[in-house]
Amino acid sequence: LILFQKGQTTTPPPFEIFLCFGEEWPDQKPKEKKLITVQVVPVAARLLLEMFSGELSWSADSIPLQISHPDLKDKMVEQFKELHQLWQNQQRLPPAPPPPP
């Protein structure tokens, strides 16, 4: 993610996690042909990738994840809003002058 953010790679890192239940995997069958597969998308990873790629367009209502404790979701969204604001402020700062010789 850091290399992507710095522009040292053009390919964003994968952040999805795939789980397969009841069958051997990996094997010759594609994951779409498995009986039970689960795709897990960590919200934090998705938001960081969107933030670094400039595609961040989320709000507290746009997170499709159901979390057992609503307070945890609210805290996480607020923390990401603060992180995004800090990141935006950092992007607006003029470059620091070079140190004196």
UniProtKB/TrEMBL annotation:
Q: Which cellular components does GO assign to this protein?
A: nucleus
Query: What are its GO biological-process terms?
Result: immune system process
Instruction: Enumerate the Gene3D superfamilies for this protein.
Output: 2.60.200.10
Q: Which residues form the Interferon regulatory factor-3 domain?
A: 1-53
Protein name in the entry: IRF5 factor
Check the UniProt entry and state the signal peptide residues, or none: none
Under PANTHER family, the record lists: INTERFERON REGULATORY FACTOR, INTERFERON REGULATORY FACTOR 5
* Gene Ontology MF term list: DNA-binding transcription factor activity, RNA polymerase II-specific; RNA polymerase II cis-regulatory region sequence-specific DNA binding
Pfam families the UniProt entry points to: IRF-3
